[in-house]
Amino acid sequence: GVRATLPLLHRRYATAQSVSSLLLVEHKDNNIASSTFNTLTAASKLGGSITALVAGENPEQVATTIAKFPGVSKVLTAKDKAYEHGISEVYAPLVVAAQKTHNFTHLLASNSAFGKNILPRVAALLDVAQISDIIGIEGTDTFIRPIYAGNAIAKVKSNDSVKVVTVRSTAFPAAKEGDNSAPTEPAPESEKSSLTEWVGEELQKSDRPELGSASRVVSGGRALKSRENFDKLMFSLADALGAAVGASRAAVDSGYCDNALQVGQTGKVVAPDLYLAVGISGAIQHIAGMKDSKVIAAINNDAEAPILQIADFGLIADLFTAVPELTEKLKK
Ligand code: FAD
Q: CDD domains in the record, alphabetically (predicted)?
């Protein structure tokens, strides 16, 4: 009896007292994805030590940058071409190897395509539950996350030995670089060969702000009617405002714009200072992706459109006259 109970008590004490998190650092061309800084803030809220994992062909510069952030106590680097592009089949074994060596209590990544791709595979390999898209932290084992497209908020408690968590970046402020200089060491070796191979990517180059982190977003809906109209009206308006362009799913499905622009339950979740919805009705699946915006404005020719119920400012007008007029006025 006594022999069996004592180690258990000891372990409980140890896990409650010594939180140690692993933060997956997403980066490209030596730039760290801004959502990583939001995730770092979430990791800091858990308390304890934070180890940053930087993997890639040339992880050195990113490792030096993340080491400067207050709260980061160590940086693990994995230098290999296989880690470029965040392929989960090679990245997940690396995270699992780091976990086996360092015994973290929490593994965190942002809820971006990168984190959503890798962490569920890590959770499966470790045989623990995945906790997705958290917007709040109530304790080291208790998290807040939206469910049903944000229509309900769930509080989830995990008894797993390690918590595998993706973080909604708009719910946490970005951590700021400081004058920390956390030590760097190589990450444990892991299997790098995989049946999955990176073939290539086609990226649309844009000078406009990035949708996920822009402070202003203008989104177009089905009412734009064509790709030509969408390009002409939405992109001119965005440029006049210094805004990123978003879209409803109806606009994407109708081929008016690229699917990377989709805002909503099955698209991006944004929370800019200003969100302007143009010719978008405001379906719950769309609202799930933008309702946390600070100021919501809408242009719609139907006064009954649901978007106007959540908008701070509504303009009941035909977008084909209102948008060019607004764009001209903004240019002045
Ligand atoms: P509509 O609903 O057709 O609205 C068009 C609006 O434009 C109307 O309000 C109309 O009054 C107005 N309008 C028309 N003409 C003019 C004009 N000349 N001037 C001004 N206003 C005009 N949707 C998303 O957006 N994002 C998602 O992530 C998403 N995920 C989904 C997931 C699931 C599982 C499902 C079932 C649906 C999802 N949807 C999503 C689709 C969603 O339900 C709606 O169908 C979609 O958002 C509608 O897009 P819309 O507002 O552009 O089109």
A: ETF_alpha (cd01715)
